[in-house]
Amino acid sequence: MDFAVLGLGDSSYTKFNFVAKKLHRRLLQLGGSALLPVCLGDDQHELGPDAAIDPWLGDLWEKVLKQYPVPHSLAVIPPGVPLPSKFTLQFLQEPPGRSSEEPHVPSPGPQEPPSASQPFLAPMAANQRVTGPAHFQDVRLIEFDITGSGISFSAGDVVLIQPSNSADDVQQFCQALGLDPNQYFVLQPREPGVPCPPELPQPCSVQHLVAHYLDIASVPRRSFFELLACLSPHGLEREKLLEFSSAQGQEELCEYCSRPRRTILEVLCDFPHTAGAIPPEYLLDLVPQIRPRAFSIASSLLVHPTRLQILVAVVRYQTRLKEPRRGLCSSWLASLDPTQGDFCFWEGSGGTGHAERGFVLGLPSFPTSLPALDGVSAASSDPFMTPVPAAGPVSVPLWVRPGGLAFPETPETPVILVGPGTGVAPFRAAIQERVARGWTGNFLFFGCRQRDQDFYWEAEWRELEKRGCLTMVTAFSREQDRKVYVQHRLRELGPLIWKLLDRHGACFYLAGNAKRIPVDVTEALTSIFQEHGGLSAPEAAAYLARLQQTLRFQMETWA
Question: How far is residue 459's CA from residue 30's CA, in Å, rounded to a whole number?
């Protein structure tokens, strides 16, 4: 069998492209013939995975076409001709009944746990900034009410949250493409057997599609420019788009898009003639779907039986572009105010309308011009239209799945938890769970910049220390001339770490940023094994490998 393996990965993770490498080796062992060496695409490369994929694909097609020529009866699609869109949009002349998009996401029944296809609309109970005013980053402790949801979770599990685009971005996108946000359509697949996206109601409004489905705030990939060039009727814009989508134009594309983190919406605004000519049926081919974001659960049901808490660092940073870059989900969550109602109705001679957190959904007999609400600026076309507040909390669609950390079920097994920054979140859930069961042997290593700015849950930790339920070691990196991190504290307490691991069978956990923390902590551990366990360097590496294989050393990291 001839084969070729292409892997897509991220070199900031320890097991970079592990599956692709293993599959390539296994196919060789089974007698397969590799057409090419394994290709390892890397998201961390300045040019993205395409830096490795482009030359590899060229070589692959050359070999494939030489061994398996295209039959003469088949014509090659010429460059610049787009494939047919996956779906067609049939616009409705009249808006449908009011129930088509309400509720925004259906709540599951009591016997059915929430899932990606049927999230639970969780009322937001609290949204509190937990970093000091002088701290560079806004970090939020957010709490959801999960009463009656059927949600169950343990320490180490994660919650997935489906975010939405901002009202301003939705409005700007519709204007750039000449779309009426209040217009409804029915989605139809071109090919039989192709399902419509279950996240979209039928019929669906343009407003709903853009606000809740299309990821217009993401950084576009090269395929976006390829399709956009095919759809462009404007000579100069099409020429530039073709350049960006070519192999030779990847450095320029990186400079224009990837480095400054320019979004799909901003690109479309830079190519106005092309944006205004995009056929609506190509929207789902051109713009990717908004993906849910995963957060470590920071609370235990044994302590908070009807609540789910997360610790969210709001992503905001500056590039050379004028507008700061913002994380879609974290910024959206931070903007929600649990003291405000989730929606508001308008009543007047023109009918009744509904706006969800500033997103006008559009209902029968409802004018397209609206009074201002929650950041939406518009003049009412009906002087008799007045807002009528409606009761109801701010709700967020979410569901739970197992995480990458599994904690011991035996009370006599100590745990060493290393969680710098927001990495401490899953360990708060674990400590709450263990303390509620009366289990001791909890050792927490926490690191942050300054104790008065980003020491999350300080009062809670101190109370547990007083009760003898927790041993806590802190590292405040900016409170002395020499920066001190959690790996330094581990080395300082090397004899204790070795004793817990080697004599008491402790489990070691690490959570945090994938860039440097895993390397620094594993280096500290191997140093401890050598210095306090008397192991050689190879023996220390083997000892660490055994801890990982037996799940006594587990990591949860993110890029």
Answer: 58
What HEC string does 408-445 produce?
CCCCCCCEEEECCHHHHHHHHHHHHHHHHCCCCCEEEE
User: Is the Cβ–Cβ distance between 503 and 413 less than 8 Å?
Assistant: no
Rounded distance between C-alpha atoms, residue 175 and residue 195, angstroms: 29
**CA 139, 141, 145, 146: dihedral to nearest 10 degrees?**
80
Task: Respond yes or no on whether the N-terminal peptide bond of residue 197 is cis (omega within 30° of 0).
Answer: no
Give the pairing of strands 293-296 and 158-161.
antiparallel
**Distance between CA atoms of residues 424 and 31, nearest Å:** 47
pTM > 0.85: no
**Residue from 94, 288, 89, 323 nearest 206 by CA:** 89
User: What's the CA gap between 159 and 200, in Å, rounded?
Assistant: 22
Q: What is the pLDDT along the chain (559 residues), one digit of tens a residue?
A: 999 999 999 998 878 999 999 999 999 999 999 999 999 999 888 888 888 998 999 899 999 988 888 888 888 788 888 999 999 999 998 888 754 555 444 445 456 899 998 999 999 999 999 999 989 999 999 999 999 999 999 999 999 999 999 999 999 999 999 999 999 999 999 999 999 999 999 999 999 999 999 999 999 999 999 999 999 999 999 999 999 999 889 899 999 999 999 999 999 999 999 999 999 999 999 999 999 999 999 999 999 999 999 999 999 999 999 999 999 999 999 999 998 865 443 333 333 333 444 333 332 222 333 333 333 333 333 333 333 444 468 999 999 999 999 999 999 999 999 999 999 999 999 999 999 999 999 999 999 999 999 999 999 999 999 999 999 999 999 888 899 999 999 999 999 999 999 999 999 999 998 888 999 999 999 999 999 999 999 999 999 999 999 999 999 988 7
Cβ-contact 507, 405 below 8 angstroms: no
Q: Give the gyration radius of the chain's Cα atoms.
A: 27
CA distances from 369 to 7, 362, 378, 389, 535 (A): 50, 10, 6, 18, 74
Q: Coil, helix or strand for 508?
A: strand
Say which residues have a Cβ less than 8 Å from residue 163's Cβ, sequence separation at least 6: 290, 292, 293, 328, 329, 332, 333
343-348 β-sheet, strand order: 359-360, 351-356, 343-348, 386-389
Q: Which residues contact 397 (CB under 8 A, 6 or more apart)?
A: 104, 105, 119, 120, 121, 122, 161, 162
Number of residues that this document lists for the chain: 559
Residue type, 149: S
Instruction: Give SS3 for 37.
Output: coil
CB 196 within 8 A of CB 189: yes
The phi, psi pair for 416, rounded to 5°, reads -110, 115
Q: How far is CA 65 from CA 57, 60, 81, 83, in A?
A: 12, 8, 22, 21
Largest CA distance in the chain: 84
